[in-house]
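Wed. Picked up where I left off yesterday with SET domain-containing protein. The coffee machine is broken again, so keeping this brief.
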Amino acid sequence: MAQETAEEPVLRLSEWLESLGADLSGIGFEGSVGHHRLVAGTKPCQSLQCSLRSRFMDFVTRRDSEVHLARFPLDQAFTARSIINHSIAGPGYQQASRGLMDERELIIFALMTERLKGSKSPWEPWISALPNTFDTPAYYSDVELEELKGTNLYQAARLLKQQMAAVWKRLEPLCVQLLREEGIHTDPPCVDDLIWGYSTFWSRGQAIPVSLKDVTEVEEGLVPGLDMCNHSVPARARWQLQPALNVLNVTLSPVNAKIRLAQASDSGPSNIFLMVERSTACRPGAEVTIDYGDKSNEELLLLYGFCTDTRNMNDQLMIPLLDTGSMPDDPTMEARLMLLEQHGCKPQLFLPFQLMENIHRPPAESRHLGSSCYIPRTAFDTLQIWCMSRQQLAEELSRKTPAKLPEPDAASKADLLDLLVHLLAKTVERLEGPQGTESLEADLGLLNRAEELPQRMLHSIIYRAGQKKLARHFLQQAERAALEQMGAPSPSNPK
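Structure written out below (tokens, as returned):
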């Protein structure tokens, strides 16, 4: 059989999408198999399938300022609901998933299984155009994973692989049975197939507002065709649901979200439109990109397999408190965790990049610890609770309603600063010491010759260098504040 050319999968995908009601007149697909991208066509979308009768909808669609490139029917999105209700594949998934999977797991299971079906899958033109592999840590070899040593992502990636193996033990019999019942003869499925489904879901999924009776819920899934859009900041395009709900570009979240929203008064069918500003419309053949949301490099690398740069404004340093050894065998730990929960805190510190960049203009919600040291209010409250004595914990927990934590006295503030310095020093050691990778200076030297580095190594270094910058900065500021608290002169800020 003749080997398929690079153009044939793109043609089959376009024809398949159009047969389902999509309008692709303003876009096209380019690239090699598994690495397609969405590009601008020569004319805008021809079928604006939404009501233009009311002034409200005239405003929402912004006909004068935006060009519609493509339309994707919402009922063709790959969601748990559409999978279960599919006329051909649905019955098999209804039986296989009954009481054994949540909606998110069902989508991942279906992605994996439909890929194994090959040409017998009703979604084959789309599935076959998806990547065969990803650059996320789930796909890293043991050697590649060593580039993340000392980071939170290193432990997360190792844990993810263990979790995938455990989930596969539960899902493997269901997958084998479903394929056998449908007469699919293929190589025995394995955990790598599940990891592919997981990676596909998280790297290409959307959180889509859908109207169900009087309630609008955010439904997770993939939109075939739209999922070919890559990320850029600023984005060249955006997507919007029409008839419009009062929510735009909802970002896929690790937590299922259900929200009640007002819906526009329009009885027409729901579609997702891809649109660009008329003043910045892409030239024909130029890539059409969207913004994946305000994500840190840690999230970008974990979900999509890339980082932006070491100055990602959404970056943050997460310091876990439970495994630092700072308070071993604490008999009051249960009370401490309970009080944290009452105040909306977790046993973790989150120190954001914005505080490092805006040191002279700190956000209103930050707390000043002395010198130039600012931390978020939630981090301050977490440290304060972590330093409380047994008596202080008992007094706070005895309140009928949680009250604002009392302002710490000088001694308590000194304890708080000592704990912060200790935690940050341990973090710097973990990132740059024997259990981590090289020093920040070594990482920056590697990034000076980025073009010579393999992609996975490059993005691992970008991520870990950003973490080292944050840890060093906050340690430096905390040490100055601690010296100031003791009445000792603090060293001048470095240039």
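Quick read: The longest strand covers residues 66-73.
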